[in-house]
Design brief:
The protein is built from six helices and four strands; from the N terminus they run H-H-E-H-E-H-E-E-H-H. It is an alpha+beta fold and about 190 residues long. Strands 1-2-4-3 form a four-stranded mixed beta sheet, sandwiched between helices. Helix 3 crosses helix 4. The radius of gyration is 16 Å and the shape is globular.
Length: about 190
């Protein structure tokens, strides 16, 4: 059996951008994403990591890059790691290491890490629950956000606390079939 060649980093980024446009922005799952996408302030990094140590090293480098960049240049960063933490439970366990790295670097309160994974599952849900799709992405990834920017965006948006509820309603209305059709539209050929 011939194995399929690994996707090139630029194809992984293109697939991720399509997901961002179609799912995150298109379904308005994150009302803050559109402005940074339009301004081209999202950095995409594809990690070649295959293990915990190398992914932590790539995360540290990504945090350094974000910390040394002006928000007008890089507001937020997606660290995509298609070959590391492919199983959701491993990924979920890794998040505590990522948070510890943030703390050890003295960046708690400066940055936060949001989590996305193809098999994302919230506690108390079944794997096929459509609401898990709010955090499902084409590849495992860590979304690095600036705390100040998050606070400003939330304070400027009326009823920001209702975002999660609106997302759940949107996904329930879309349904599994609609989500699968969306995934087919963004899947690389």
């Amino acid at each position: 059996m011939i194995s399929k060649p690994a996707a090139k980093p630029e194809d992984i980024v293109a697939h991720t951008e399509a997901w961002l446009l179609e799912a995150v922005i298109g379904l308005n799952l994150c009302p803050f994403a559109k402005s940074v996408q339009v301004k081209k302030q999202i950095a995409y990094q594809v990690s070649n990591a295959t293990d915990t140590a190398s992914l932590l090293a790539d995360l540290a480098a990504a945090l350094t890059l974000l910390d040394e960049s002006e928000p007008e240049t890089i507001e937020t960063l997606l660290l995509i790691h298609p070959s590391a933490m492919r199983h959701f439970l491993d990924y979920n366990d890794f998040l505590s290491l990522a948070d510890a790295l943030l703390e050890d670097a003295g960046l708690t309160g400066v940055f936060q890490i949001a989590s996305f994974h193809p098999d994302y599952q919230f506690a108390g849900t079944t794997p096929d629950d459509i609401t898990n799709c709010s955090n499902r992405s084409p590849y495992p990834m860590l979304h690095l956000l600036r705390e100040d920017s998050v606070e400003k965006a939330v304070s400027a948006m009326p009823e920001a606390e209702l975002i999660v509820e609106r997302n759940l309603a949107t996904l329930r209305q879309l349904g599994t079939q609609g989500w699968q059709e969306l995934q087919e539209r963004i899947r690389p050929s």
